[in-house]
Amino acid sequence: MRKIIVLSALVVVFLCGCSSQPISQEPLETSISSEMELPENASYNPEEDVIYITPTTEPPEETVIPDAVDIDEGATSLDSLKYEAFEDRAVITDFTGTETEIIIPSHIGEYPVTEIGGYAFEAAWDMTKIEIPDSVKIISEQAFADCESLAEISLPETITSIGRGAFSNCISLTELTIPASVTETQEEMLTGCALQDLYILNPNLTYNNWGLESMETPCTIHAPENAEILSWAEENHFPFEILE
Asked: What is the C-alpha to C-alpha distance for residues 28 and 14, in angstroms, rounded to an integer?
């Protein structure tokens, strides 16, 4: 009998090759055939009579340095916006400026800006307005969290995903439209906000613990007829309006 140093749940890990965490090696006796072929990430030690499993990981995506860093005319300077460029796109990663009105560039050199990275504008206290181009598809976790002066933001109809806590504690934001293109949202997206009007244009978008229950005064939810969010609004006593 051989001993395999891997919990049964971890067998899935090396088969799918998706774990990047260290494995706690606690022996678990199990019976296997002596003719069993081991995967490439496993090795048998006959002296200890154990099989060691080494989890495989996807290599991290490599950043690139753009040949040119030209941006849209009128966009906020790259002196204030930090970014990372990859093979086919650029991601805004940080805001270090003092501007109160921000215009995100649609491209940095040849790389389209497709994502507002996690925590990129977190606690940009004085920012009051931000314009996002239609190259952007993803707003990541806490991207605009604690932007207490942010009163105006327009999300383009190219965004498909909004991350956890993306607009949390944006206490000056009274109106927000989630475009029909958005199919994925995460929890606490609007926790701590003081919205008065929330427009949900995708009729199939379901409520995912966005944090609306924490509002002192429930906002009015506007959505197409038979939208999933309207059922949630009615059940939770939020005022709502059916869009034509």
From this structure: 16
In which region does residue 191 sit, left (phi positive, over 0), alpha (psi from -120 to 50) or beta (all else)?
beta
Strand pairing partners for 185?
A: 162
Euclidean distance between CA atoms 83 and 136, whole angstroms: 14
What pTM was computed for the model? 0.77
Number of domains in the chain: 2
Q: What is the pLDDT of residue 31?
A: 43
Kindly give the residue spans of alpha helices, DSSP state H, lying in 17-65: none
Q: What is the mean pLDDT of the chain?
A: 87
Looking at the domain assignment, is residue 63 inside a domain? no
Would the CA dihedral through 177, 182, 183, 185 be positive or negative? Answer: negative
Residues 183 and 138: their CA atoms lie apart, in Å, by 11
Q: How far is CA 108 from the centre of its chain?
A: 21
Same domain for 34 and 123: no
- How far apart (Å, rounded) are the C-alpha atoms in residues 87 and 79? 22
Q: Residue 8: which H helix or E strand, with range?
A: helix 8-16
